[in-house]
Amino acid sequence: MALLEVKNLGISFGGLRAVDEFSITIEKGQLYGLIGPNGAGKTTIFNMLTGVYKPTDGTIVLDGKNITGKNTIEINRAGIARTFQNIRLFKDMTVLDNVKVALHNHYKYSTFTGVFRLPRYFKLEKAMDAKALELLKVFELDDNASLLASGLPYGDQRKLEIARALATQPKLLLLDEPAAGMNPNETAELMDTIRFVRDNFDMTVLLIEHDMSLVSGICEKLSVLNFGQLLCEGKTAEVLKNPEVITAYLGE
Ligand SMILES: Nc1ncnc2c1ncn2[C@@H]1O[C@H](COP(=O)(O)OP(=O)(O)OP(=O)(O)O)[C@@H](O)[C@H]1O
């Protein structure tokens, strides 16, 4: 069953048509890649899917619900979470608190309860600590829960960003160049992590990536974007053999 159905999505910035007539269907549980040359419009598509930009054309349906034009908070509540090309953690907060911030949607208490430290406050804070630690354990970050996020090695910061996105309990996880800046060992470990997340969190993943080892290693399907338009889509191995894709993106 399709989890995400995007039809004829488009956006212009002044005279620039950054994305035009873009459509994609992602089934529940799929690991799906969005690839293409620099400036092709990939991040702009993520920004439209997450409500950062409002599309000028097209529709976005998540799990049967039309979310076109909703804001970032509404879209996160509907079930889309993301990570960013340039890591955006709360660097001066602890590893644990980075995840707890994202849990707040699901553990609510009133300002009154918080300010006066009523018993419900302590109960929910304890429950959030436990849930956050459980998530950190999945990523083997629990031993560093009390460190500042800025103190983590680069690869661990990327993992923490994924843990924080998962804390919002999404249906669809968008990863924007998760392997950027990683060495081959870290990339291989990241692939295992993404597979683990898909299998153990019943997650559907759409990722943007330039690292072809990661793309061919984990993506089941690909869409290739060129100059804002869909160049081709299909099973990963077939797409990577497509002469048009080789000319436009892969070179040689
Ligand atoms: N807010 C904006 N205002 C004006 N132009 C923008 C804006 N956001 C993106 N663009 C333009 O839209 C086009 C697509 O950019 P985008 O960042 O989506 O590409 P990309 O495929 O993600 O590239 P990369 O692989 O380098 O990250 C570019 O020409 C970019 O300059």
Structure, explained:
The protein has 252 residues and is α/β, with parallel strands linked by helices. It has 10 helices and 10 strands. It folds into 2 domains: 1-79 and 170-252, Rossmann fold (3-Layer(aba) Sandwich); 88-169, 3-Layer(aba) Sandwich (Rossmann fold), CATH 3.40.50.300. The strands form 2 sheets. A 6-stranded mixed β-sheet has the order 6-7-8-3-9-10, sandwiched between helices. A 4-stranded antiparallel β-sheet has the order 2-1-4-5, with helices on one face. The longest helix is centred in the middle third of the chain and has 20 residues, at 119-138. The two termini are 37 Å apart. The model has no long low-confidence stretch (mean pLDDT 91).
Set down the secondary structure blueprint:
Blueprint: E1 2-13, E2 16-27, E3 31-35, H1 42-49, E4 57-62, E5 65-66, H2 72-78, E6 80-82, H3 95-103, H4 111-115, H5 119-138, H6 154-167, E7 172-176, H7 184-200, E8 204-208, H8 212-218, E9 221-226, E10 229-235, H9 236-241, H10 243-250
Parallel strand pairs: 3-8, 3-9, 6-7, 7-8
Antiparallel strand pairs: 1-2, 1-4, 4-5, 9-10
Adenosine-5'-triphosphate binds at residues 13, 16, 18, 36, 38-44.
For the structure shown, list the relevant keywords:
ATP binding; alpha/beta; 252 residues; L-isoleucine transmembrane transporter activity; Rossmann fold; binds adenosine-5'-triphosphate; four-stranded antiparallel beta sheet; six-stranded mixed beta sheet
